[in-house]
Amino acid sequence: MSSALFSLSGKKVWVAGHRGMVGSALTRRLAREECQVLTVDRAALDLTDQKATAEWVKSAKPDVVILAAARVGGILANDSRPVDFLLDNLRIETNVLAAAAENGVAKLLFLGSSCIYPRDAAQPMKEEALLSGPLEETNQWYAIAKIAGLKLAEAYRRQAGAHFISAMPTNLYGPNDNFDATRSHVIPALICKVHEAKRAGAGVVEVWGTGAPLREFMHVDDLADACVFLLAHYDGAGPVNVGTGEEMRVADVAKLLLEIAGVKAELRFDRTKPDGAPRKLLDVGRLHALGWQHRIALRDGLERTYAWYARSVAA
Ligand code: GFB
User: Fold this and answer.
1) What is the per-residue pLDDT across 66-104, written as a single tens digit (0 to 9) for each?
2) Rounded to whole angstroms, how far apart are CA atoms 133 and 140?
3) Active-site residue identified among 142, 156, 234, 309
4) Dihedral over Cα of 149, 155, 160, 166: its sign
5) What is the distance between the alpha carbons of residues 258 and 110, in angstroms, rounded to a whole number?
6) pLDDT for the residue 270
7) 11 DSSP assignment
8) Which of 148, 161, 154 is nearest to 104 (CA)?
9) What separation in Å is there between the alpha carbon of 248 and the centre of ligand 1?
10) Interstrand relation of 248-249 and 214-215 (parallel, antiparallel or unpaired)
11) Residue 67: beta bridge partners?
């Protein structure tokens, strides 16, 4: 592992978006560091409001910023709310990065997404694939906003010498996700549907698309650990992919969730719904070379997440 370039000790670390799945995992992980975690509720600060964000950062004076706030959603939500996904994310990114730069933040981590890479990028996708081809249409709005964000972080490095870095996580899952059968990502959506089938004793669970697409899934606690690692060990201009390097067919994820929940139901594929990208596997060579690897195996992470959902949301 490379030696640490930056220490969080004694620093004020602002987790923007601390109530979300990623932000809450970050605050749990940062509790193990000798730093002070700053948070602000959405009711007190709307990050799409430029003036309010600038004022808040000026008075709170964070040393470190992790931008985990974003408008996110699954394949259908992305496709049906293009303005919201593009505009809200652009606003949040530009407001937070500009305020951080203007107030001398010592280190900032911007979080993107694996959907920034071209739909037909060679698999596994290396960081160099960025902007080498057309995007997947279903999430192009979100992807364009995230590309603008990571380029803005890079621009602040170049123009102002800011220590802004970017990480590109793969598809994430875990506690505090948005669990909704229509708007959320595939794992939380399937957890809702499988749990409902269990409750109702239903014999069929609906899966969108063909079930053939391959996805790489990572537990959000692994992502949070990788973020803390990157803040300490990385200070380069290019993004760093954060994933497991392992992938699974959507149909097999659905079967695994049925097994975990102890539900004997059939899968019914709704081919009127989009498949999206056929495959989205990250090349995690850069992250491994820096010295970080994921720890939570998919089955273990899904078991924990299903148990959390059954206990906290569906109880
Ligand atoms: O997780 P998901 O919505 O997002 O869908 P993407 C992944 C795959 O699961 C697609 C299938 O092939 C879906 O058709 N799927 C099957 C389902 N059943 C379901 C279901 O009940 N709900 C959902 N949502 N999908 C997202 C982007 O793309 O990836 C975001 O839209 C973000 O912008 C995220 O980048 C990481 O992996 O296709």
Assistant:
1) 999 999 999 999 989 999 999 999 999 999 999 999 999
2) 12
3) 142
4) positive
5) 35
6) 98
7) -
8) 161
9) 13
10) antiparallel
11) 16, 110
